[in-house]
Amino acid sequence: MTLLEGRTAVVTGGAQGIGLAMATTFAENGAKIVLGDLDPGRTQAAAEELKAAGHEALAVECDVTSEEQVNRLGDAALETFGRIDVWVNNAGITRDATLRKMTLDQFRAVVDVHLQGSWLGTRRASLAMREAGSGAIVNISSISGKVGLVGQTNYSAAKAGIVGLTKAAAKELAHLGVRVNAIQPGLVYTDMVRALREDIIAAKLAEIPMGRGAEPEEVANVALFLASDLSSYMTGNVLEVTGGRHI
Ligand SMILES: NC(=O)c1ccc[n+]([C@@H]2O[C@H](COP(=O)([O-])OP(=O)(O)OC[C@H]3O[C@@H](n4cnc5c(N)ncnc54)[C@H](O)[C@@H]3O)[C@@H](O)[C@H]2O)c1
After folding, report:
1. Which of 95, 203, 229, 241 lies 20 to 30 Å (CA to CA) from residue 6?
2. Where does the record place the Ketoreductase domain (predicted)?
3. What is the Cα–Cα distance from 236 to 150, expressed in whole angstroms?
4. Region 97-104: what's the mean pLDDT?
């Protein structure tokens, strides 16, 4: 398929998990890929994987909590590929704890990566896209931001904040040809989920009408839809990819 032929896509947190799945799906649809992630070695290895499959890819060391590094990620994309058509704010961490135990540092760390990082990315992407008169920004929220989950007051707050950011940015940028949408995944089999206790995973599975978690590619396909012209009349929307959980 060639849904993103000739376009450049930036994916934060793209070295593994859902981010790498989105990058791979976009590349298979013709996009040139820019991966921004913390660890230069892992990010470079992911870019090499894409290149070995015949795609164009660039690895950039980027901590999304840093204004300077997010801006540099955008600069690197423009210098190498000349344009930014798609930007996915995907980088993420968890620091789960109940209110009784959660520290201010744990709260701030999660809000800084998810909410501030998505804002920095949205701002950087929109500067390039408004000049080009087109672009699609995809923000990765979570079902935790819709319903609130125990032990995740930091994560739920940040992921709900991403919904507000998405809608406000969508309204600001619509007349410039730039669309901004979000995805709320449920349980997706990545390192983030594999780190959970087995009884916690089992409790989550019991809530899912489809009876299983998602493969990262199942989120990536929805991101492809939002990144491409298939969703040309959609902006400010939040799509749930949860197997029917918490509908
Ligand atoms: N896995 C799930 O079930 C699930 C569910 C809902 C939402 N999400 C969201 O999907 C996104 C991807 O999660 P995943 O499951 O692939 O996790 P993952 O842990 O497999 O990958 C996250 C990536 O983000 C990178 N990252 C972390 N902090 C960063 C920072 N400051 N700057 C740049 N990169 C950073 C990590 O290095 C890693 O490569 C996250 O936003 C997560 O909150 C995941």
Report:
1. 241
2. 7-196
3. 27
4. 98
Domain ranges within the chain, ordered by starting residue = 8-240
Residue 22 pLDDT exceeds 80: yes
Question: What is the model's pLDDT at position 1?
Answer: 75
Candidate from 20, 60, 63, 93 with most ligand 1 atoms within 8 A of CB, to mutate: 93
Give Cβ neighbours of residue 66 (< 8 Å, ≥ 6 apart). Answer: none
**Secondary structure (DSSP) of 7-52:** -EEEEETTTSHHHHHHHHHHHHTT-EEEEEES-HHHHHHHHHHHHH
Neighbours of 63 (CB within 10 A): 17
Superfamily in which the 8-240 domain is placed by CATH: NAD(P)-binding Rossmann-like Domain (3.40.50.720)
Per-residue pLDDT tens over the stretch 40-54: 999 999 999 999 999
Positions marked catalytic: 155
**Rounded Cα distance, 49 and 204, in Å:** 32
